[in-house]
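Q: What would this complex look like in 3D?
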Amino acid sequence: MSEASAIEATATSADASENPRGVWREARRALWLLSRSFSSVVGLVIVAIFLVLAILGPYIVPYPGASTGNVDMSSMLLPPSMEHWFGTDDMGNDIFSRVVIGTRISLQIGLTITLGAAVIGVPLGIFSGYLGGNVRRVIMAFTDLFLALPSLVLAIPIVTVLGPGVTNATIALAIVWWPGYVRLVDSKALSLSKEPFVEAARAMGASTLRIVFRYMLPNCTSPLIVKASLDMGAAILAAAGLGFIGLGAKAPSPEWGAMLSVARGYLPTWWWFAVFPGLAIYVSVLGFNLLGDGLRDIFDPRTTSQ
Amino acid sequence: MPDHVARVAGLRKTFQVPDGPFRKREVTAVDNVDFTLERGETVGLVGESGSGKSTVGRLLLGLLPPTGGEIVVLGRDIAALPARQMRSLRRDIQIVFQNPHTSLHPRMSLGRAMAEPLLIQGGFSRSEIRRRISTMIDIIGLPEIFLGRYPHELSGGQKQRLCIARALMLNPKILVLDEPTSALDVSVQAQILEFLRSLRAEFGLTYLFISHNLAVVQAMCSRILVMYRGQIVESGETRQILTDPQHAYTRRLLSATLEPTPDARLPVLLDSG
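A: Here is my prediction, written as structure tokens for the whole assembly.
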């Protein structure tokens, strides 16, 4: 990816002065298009709330100590009340505080997995689609090999080998997540490589790296943003799944999946223990999916031309 | 020899196309084509869709590797050229494509698109690039404020002017025009053709004009090559070919042209085979 920025740096005067305004105008247009669909506004609001909680969470919760492994047997497993909105858990900690503090962990994991997968998958896909021939055959065969296995099933042995923990779970999920990006970018790059403007670049003598990063990549961003947004939800879910089966984050950590795995033993009597972390997973995944669908509508030229 | 800017001899190009799940079939797109381009002339390459005329243009630019034969551009055999020299040869031969709507990077401002060939070739200072852009935007008759705009804000004719400008930024000697007007409105077509004609004199260009439109070719070209199924079946002076066609295919091509006359009927094709 450093090649792209190096080329970026050589850009001259001609567009530099106009671009920021163009970007701002496009962003406002995108927001306007998004605002026309109710569900994508809901998605945007949910995602925005979770982002704010991820940044400010630990500083605004009523019981900041709830995530550090405190034990207070006197307030163990209290039902939801004005004092403890989501009730308390088996260690007497405030579940609301834990869920909010856990937002940062889940979003961090989701973002890292998505970015990691994109960093591996996008270059592979774009070279595969542009170069074609044997390069494409090898890359796609390798990708299909990974795609043939369910990602979680592949991630579990990888975490087992690396050892359980948040970092290793993230690494494992990024390793199994990239093939989707190769598939997406490959098909896009394949059609772009036949576009006359790419051929014109070749006629001007542009190098392969320049064509790939300056001509093809900017035209792949729309489907990538949509996929990344949808994947954020799926990655949060997968990370919670690994936490639930004990391969991700571990018990005192307020990660939602790990909380659920402890809470499972307390159902159905102490329902609030499991329901609120579960709801946090559910709502955040829903938010990212709704936003992704809304973005898909924005980037689809057939809807924008109306 | 001295006045040949390009010479093509025995040019062949075959493509492998899948024929059923396991077999491949070889399709010959260009078969034993010879021609030369003289300095300053406009040569028309006419033929129906699929006759291989666009493939010849791409081969001449080195965008496709030839299967056989020789392509000599300005004294250099492009098949034998190492990558670095191939890149510098691109200063001398450029192409304008059929569809201006897809020939421009949709997210690149016009100024940037015009700077791109100079940046790719390298060795131009910023002030030189700016000077060339402002000269060229004058020549194509667009106001300078367009430099910050994006292709979707332009009309088809304006886009094609920009494509021509981009191709001329490096002062090439040869310009391959691959049906440059067929995607445009009739009124705009005439403008672009007139523009191309004035550029030829101004820049001392040699054109290879690929087209299926005989009226356009008649207006532009001094010499015509007629292509049919990958081969050049007839060549000669424009007037001679249009008034006295020798080859059966050329005659069919001519009789398929619709004349804008009040009592016009659908054309009667001379030979159906």
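A: To summarize the key features: DSSP finds nine helices and ten strands in chain B. The mean pLDDT of chain B is 87.
Q: Very helpful, thank you.
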